[in-house]
Amino acid sequence: MNSMFSHGVPLSYYLLLSALLFALGVVGFLIKRNLITVFMSIELMLNAVNLSFVTFAHEWHAVKGQIFVFFVMMVAAAEAAVGLAIIIAIFRARATLAVDRIDLMKL
Amino acid sequence: MHLILFFVFAGFCLAGAINLLLQSHPINSALSLIVVMTSLAVLYLLLGAEFLAAAQVIVYAGAIMVLFTFVVMLLNAGREERTLGSGVARAVGFPAVVAILGVIATVIVKAQDLGVAKLGEGLTNAPGGTNIEALSKVLFTELLLPFEVTSVLILIAILGAVALASHDRERQAGK
């Protein structure tokens, strides 16, 4: 416990922050009723997992952990582009963004 | 110093995430998500990941969030209506969230062999001097093929986004 106040931050703090952010993302996914905000909660969860990747990369001095985060960012960018296009298409067909009213697969 | 910076920006992160949940207007949620992502970039810097901090600001806080705010404005998304949602989500979802958080937190707290992060210390043990040097050496030698495959993925995503969001498809369906 002494090392906590001397120089650095224990990596478990970073992991706890990551877990908290992930839990907040899941809660947002459950309670938000707007399609775009639900999508933002997914992005929040992705970011939380990225933080634990970077933390473990720091712990083991492994460069591949950081590269994995880089790939996650690329995939997240692609996912955001396609996901937002789908949201636009749904809005054109339904004229609503409320997830309670978008309950059919058929547009 | 590191501890103070960590607590300040971890506080920003959590405050932004909680604000994302509490705001009812999507644009406010998007702005608080930008706060979360920018503070995460600072935390990456503290962990010695300079390249990822820059990429986080440019890709996430820049490109992706611009896309989000653009869609929010394009669709003129208003205040969301608060409903209780499905009963299953409340009955199963929230206990599951608490259980997952509890399990992860106990595992992390019990893991005593985790190290301590100090300022200015990152992948210094890795071959190559700086973080970006070490990163690019592995990325462009060992992982060149996955890196090139991502470019194809991005291209497909762009084409898919254009195809999904274009008006033509709707007009053809209407005929």
Description:
The complex is a heterodimer of chains A (107) and B (175). With 107 residues, chain A is mainly alpha-helical. Chain A contains four helices and one strand, in the order H-E-H-H-H. In chain A, helix 2 runs antiparallel to helix 3 and helix 3 runs antiparallel to helix 4. Chain A is elongated and about 55 Å long. The N terminus of chain A is likely disordered. Chain B has a domain of 82 residues: NADH-ubiquinone/plastoquinone oxidoreductase chain 6, subunit NuoJ (Four Helix Bundle (Hemerythrin (Met), subunit A)). Chain B starts with a helix and ends with a helix. The longest helix of chain B has 25 residues. Chain B contains seven helices and one strand, in the order H-H-H-H-E-H-H-H. Chain B is an all-alpha fold. Chains A and B meet through helix 1, strand 1, helix 2, helix 3 and helix 4 of A and helix 1, helix 2, helix 3, helix 4 and strand 1 of B.
Look at the structure and give the mean pLDDT of chain A. 86
Contiguous uncertain segments of 5+ residues of chain B: none
Tell me the CATH architecture of chain A: Orthogonal Bundle
Q: CATH fold name of chain A, please? A: Helix Hairpins
Largest sheet data of chain A: none
- CATH C-level name of chain A: Mainly Alpha
Tell me the quaternary state. heterodimer
Order of helices and strands of chain B: HHHHEHHH
Instruction: Assess the beta-strand content of chain B as a share of residues.
Output: under 5%
Task: Give the overall pLDDT of chain B as a whole number.
Answer: 84
Using the coordinates shown, work out and report the CATH topology of the domain at 1-82 in chain B: Four Helix Bundle (Hemerythrin (Met), subunit A)
CATH class of the domain at 1-82 in chain B: Mainly Alpha
Q: Largest interface, per-chain counts? A: A-B, 74 and 85 residues
Main beta sheet of chain B, described? none
Low-confidence stretches of chain A: 1-5
- Calculate Rg of chain A over CA atoms: 18 Å
State the distance separating the first and last CA atoms of chain A. Answer: 57 Å
**Helix-strand makeup class of chain B:** mainly alpha
Please work out how many helical segments of chain A DSSP would assign.
4
Backbone structural class of chain A: mainly alpha
Question: How many domains in all of chain A?
Answer: 1
